[in-house]
Design brief:
Elements: E1 7-14, E2 23-31, H1 51-64, E3 71-77, H2 79-85, H3 87-102, E4 109-114, E5 126-129, H4 132-135, H5 137-160, H6 166-169, H7 175-184, H8 192-199
Parallel strand pairs: 1-4, 4-5
Antiparallel strand pairs: 1-2, 2-3
């Protein structure tokens, strides 16, 4: 996919802290010239929205993307990758991948990233914004894509690993999850490096 004009790009991640499952990073690219963001009035940080509202915005984005020249992509770094390289490199690997999909030409991208995220140096027009998922709508939209996509993955994994309740807690360290770990041990999608501190 090659983009021919200037785009604003929002990037955010979901799943930095869970004990199981991947971390996800999403990028959303919208043309600078146009008014596509008007379609997403009321968008907010995914953590502040109900699951129903997140699904609404995700479905809306998917339905209007093509006709409005909007591009979005989500990438996962697995629990195995996180254990091998660490959570920060895992997030960066996924971030680099989503950028390569939505804005392969760095000079055409005006990037806003949440928290401590950074794009590769070749993307010269980038800005990292603390709390950007709640204050910058394009980042909010990316946070929704990352969250909805990761949650859907964990629901699918709950069918493969029914003993852990992934469909409920999505891999986070809840009491229910801890009790399942103590009874059944870790699955192949648990982050072993995260479990050490949790179980201690």
């Amino acid at each position: 996919m090659f983009i021919s004009e200037q785009y604003i790009v929002g990037i955010d991640e979901a799943g930095r802290g869970p004990l199981a499952g991947p971390v996800s990073v999403a990028a959303v690219a919208i043309p600078v010239h146009g008014n596509s963001m008007r379609l997403f009035d009321g968008v907010d940080d995914s953590k502040k929205l109900s699951a129903k509202k997140r699904e609404y915005f995700f479905t809306l984005l998917r339905d209007v993307a093509l006709e409005n020249d909007i591009h979005f992509f989500v990438s996962f770094s697995s629990a195995t990758y996180i254990d091998s390289y660490g959570i920060v490199p895992a997030i960066q690997r996924a971030l680099n991948e989503v950028l390569a999909h939505v804005v392969p030409s760095p000079e055409r991208a005006n990037i806003s990233l949440d928290g401590s995220l950074h794009a590769p140096e070749c993307y010269t027009k980038q800005k990292t914004i603390i709390g950007g998922d709640a204050s910058v709508p394009i980042i909010s939209l990316a946070s929704i894509v990352a969250k909805v996509s990761r949650d859907a993955y964990m629901v699918r994994m709950s069918k493969k690993f029914p003993l852990y309740g992934f469909e409920k807690h999505k891999g986070y360290g809840t009491k229910m999850h801890g009790e399942a770990l103590m009874e059944h041990g870790a699955s192949s999608i648990h982050r072993r490096t995260f479990l050490r501190n949790f179980l201690e």
